[in-house]
Automatic annotation (TrEMBL):
InterPro entries: QVR-like (IPR031424), Sleep_regulator (IPR050975), Snake_toxin-like_sf (IPR045860)
Protein's recorded name: Protein sleepless
Lineage: Eukaryota, Metazoa, Spiralia, Lophotrochozoa, Mollusca
Keyword Kinase set for record: no
Naturally occurring in which organism (per UniProt): Mya arenaria
Keyword Transmembrane helix (UniProt): no
Amino acid sequence: MRACFTTCMMLTFYGIGECLRCFVCDNEFNPACGVDFKPYQYEAQNCRGGASKCVLQRQQRIGDFIAIVRRCHLLGSLANLNESDGCRHIVTPTNNHTFEVCLCSTDYCNTGVNITLHQLLLLCACVFWYLRTAIL
């Protein structure tokens, strides 16, 4: 009975430890990555190399153009950057170039936690089954 419960729990959380998935693009070559982002034109990529976050970087306006970059960010790769989730404005000390960096730690930067409805329902069923058999 415990082996069945353990197997059920393992199946519930299968896949949660997978890599973070982020969109990787910039609007210099494809406007679909710009201000009016069209995610259906891109396939998210797995971030590699350890602890990562997704990043959206908006650079200052140059005429009518706002440079936008979406990518994976390896934690610790930029000195003095607050890497908690959220947006921050950065000014480069050499030329006063300003940009905004937004970091997030969920797939696609907007999907919430990695536990899917399927996994949540399976977990509830496992707990219900375990409690039912423990009582009887």
